[in-house]
Design a protein that fits this description.
It contains eleven helices and two strands. The chain has helices spanning about 35, 60-75, 80-85, 100-115, 125-145, 150-155, 160-180, 190-210, 215-225, 240-255, 260-265; strands at about 50-55, 120-125.
Length: about 270
Amino acid sequence: MPPPYERRRITAPDVAPGAGPEPMPAVDRPAFLARAKAIAVNQDITRGEMEDRRHMVHWDEQIKPVLESVWLSLQSVPPEDLLDTLQKPLVPYKLQKLPKTVDKLWQRVASELNSAPTNLVAGRADINKAIEIVRKRVRKVTQRLTDDTALVEKVGKAGSGALANQAVMELYKDMAISELLASEGGHAEPTPIKAQITAIGFEIVGLLEGCQAPCSFIQMLHHAADSVTFDLSEKARREQTSAALAWLARMQSNHRLPAAERYEAMLTLLA
């Protein structure tokens, strides 16, 4: 499992009172474009391990939230200028047949970001699919800390003091183990994907077992979520990994910049 990194919230700019922002055009996870499909992957099991095109900065966890945040920033641009604001920064990237409406152009931008070769690498398909499942499990563990009424009630009855702290940690760890090491698909035959889910799950459980207090447990959960969000593939070039991390850090720290600058920064993933 790749090492955790410090994650910052991607926040939206303040919206002027009384000026409700236009909702972002509906953006589902786009299909890969031709330049993404040009990244060779092995789909023949007789020639070795099956591969997928894997994101380093993931769509659901990072790219889509950045799109949403930048779109809110762009609400400060007069509507009559918005299409031009979106089109001009795209010129250096030499994209063909750009749409002529804001909604369709935004969907195209989303598709281009999803297919950015600098953020894609060929990697084992079983690990790729396992990461998606483990990420959901880590998120569920975090959610249960506050939303599981039975768990919250048990924690409340633990009282205070050293013994109570130990009791709470046992509750948290037991719950995490039940979620992270749950059998995927019941008790069906083992598969390479299930093996990877189990391996990653045990690694995260090992990290959580070392926590001695609820605050460190929660912090470790966030680190674990990050470590299955940014995929440091062994097949990624060093400069490719560096560029993807730099883009992510840039977009996490520039939410107070003018909208046009944030938009242009977002597009640098296409470079």
